[in-house]
Amino acid sequence: MRYITTPIYYVNDVPHLGHAYTTIIADTLARFYRLQGHETLLLTGTDEHGQKIEQAAKARNFTPKEYADKISSEFKKLWDEFEISYDIYARTTDSRHIEFVKDLFLKMWKKGDIYKDKYEGYYCISCESFFTKIQLKDENACPDCGKKTELLEEESYFFKLSKYQDAILKWYEEADPILPKNKKTELVNFVQSGLKDLSITRTSFDWGIKLPDEIKDNKHIIYVWLDALFIYVSSLDFLNQGKNAKFWPAHLLLVGKDILRFHAVYFPAFLMSANLALPRFIGAHGWWTKEGEKMSKSKGNVIKPKDIADAYGLDAFRYFLLREVPFGNDGDFSETMLINRINSELNNEFGNLLSRIVGMSLKYSNGIILNEGILENFKTEFDVVQKHLEDSIIFLENLQPNRYLEELFKALAVANLSITKYEPWNLIKKGEVKKANALIGLCANILAKVSLLLSPTLPKSTAKVAESLNFKIDTKNYQALILEKQLLNFKVNAQEALFTKIEKPLLAQEAPLQQEQKIKIDDFAKIEIKVAMVKACENIQGSKKLLKFQLELDNGELRQVLSGIAEYYKADELIGKQVCVITNLKKAKIFGYESDGMILTAQSGDDCVLIGPKELVLNGSLIS
Question: Which cofactor does it need (predicted)?
């Protein structure tokens, strides 16, 4: 039985590359365990309470619930588009979660692990964390995120975290639950430095779970971490001992390194207090940068996960994230490296092997591939491949997805090198037909075995391999091909290429935002802004953002201008509209097309609005 969880993502922003990374790892593991035959449950969802959400909602004229609904739906939509195989999409605003947390709080209070006192400390709204003065950076900055903290003094309920210090250290030592292993040392050092009792309620804002009625203290809400962490248990309908309650304790909680302490120190103590079992593993991954820099809107280097998947394919995106960086390390997104992985590994090693097998079998044996003679002629190659397959399973089970993929591609390399070494076409010429067909059988079986184990990461591509070779990717064949080392016969169907070579970058590059600066009226006078009529407009193939305009200015002059507004407007709806365009910019080349000007837009919340005259004016009219 395997229960896998992603973090429940905080709804202060839309999904980014780090969210996608964690979720794709979790999905890969869930698919892998289902392939092995384990009863498996995958949970993801959103964390929606807290002061930060209350403030963000107020700034946008939403209620906290309306704001949480909006952002949570963005996460769910993306995971559905990415075909994440989650079984439960959980929200901390779900009624079953609220009731579970209240029930739990009451039990811990009656046990004597919760008491009321006054709290004074420095609070970081961004991290939802309290700190002592000695922990802060200069100017009272948060030690985790660097943002300014607030000195707060308020009545609070406290959890006796210090009571569980020795038990947590014992758990680290005996259960060895932290992955990767090097994260354990920093946790041990933190706990050994002395755990202080934890403030677990707040009175200065309202957006959260109220205390149980039995405690008769309505001004308090349950602090976000005691609330949020128990979503992993409450979502199993644990309070009512529903059908999913059997999945606790979790096999693996996946988290980012910034929230490891909450999951590996506070949560175990909460679970011990509640007499609940502890998770088997907690895995913490690193952060993603872009070409060595932290992603930010001001630098113009933010990449949306969907943009990458749309441009390069979902399987290629999944493969790159898992292959590029060792789990636990920080990762760097480079479009050049993504293209190199696609071309050299997915296309050359994986896709081309299928093409060679299909081509040779159709030519030499009418598409029939038999397993006869494989072990007699190629036992050494078969044994090497089997070792790579066994190692790949060990690496994935130990949360080393990059090594798991590395071993599988070493197995593919054996097949490709065997074709180069033994040259089946020459074997045919020499009359060694059986050996040639045995070689093709070896390669087809290597491809089938590797595809079985690759299927959790590349579900779409491996499904095409299975269709082409006429076998099933299922638990039965996992048992036969991987565990029992059996060999299959195949009846080959022609199949389109799994991957195509990428000749140029496919992501539209966004210009970085400039630092705010004052300009003189003379500088502004140099900018020429005119009204233009949209005569033609179309999408650009391969780009989800760009539209190509033909704009009519004065005297019938036509200008081609590109604008990144395809996510907000349909091309055919813009024809006949008047827009404002800067006409004296230097020409630029975008996505291979010339752009002679810039159409003016305004950002309004999450929307982009074209700027144009309210009434019809002459084309080419100068704006001043």
Answer: Zn(2+)
